[in-house]
Write a structure and sequence with these properties.
This protein has 84 residues and is an alpha+beta fold. The protein has helices at 25-30, 66-75; strands at residues 36-44, 47-54, 59-63, 79-82.
């Protein structure tokens, strides 16, 4: 697992196993930040679109369709997940 702080520095020693039963709020907030992005259907002033959000919910981009949104996520070495 590649957990990083907001400044990009690693906050754990590689190879360390994180016990999810004792995870801190800060560790939970960064879980999946570098690996997962969510696609969510939204309504904009121009009509329906698909919002791309980071794992923590931070908006990153808009796409005209779900396929384009997923392609943008994959192109950035992340895994798309649909929120509905």
């Amino acid at each position: 697992m590649n957990v990083k702080t907001h400044d990009g520095s690693a906050n754990f020693v590689p190879g360390t196993v994180i016990d999810i039963h004792h995870i801190t709020a800060a560790q939970l907030a960064t879980l999946g930040m570098e690996e997962i992005a969510f696609v969510k259907p939204v309504m904009t002033e121009s009509g329906p679109a698909f919002a791309i959000h980071a794992a923590d919910g931070t908006p990153m981009a808009l796409a005209s369709d779900a396929t384009l949104a997923a392609a943008a996520i994959i192109q950035n070495d992340m895994v798309p997940s649909l929120v509905h």
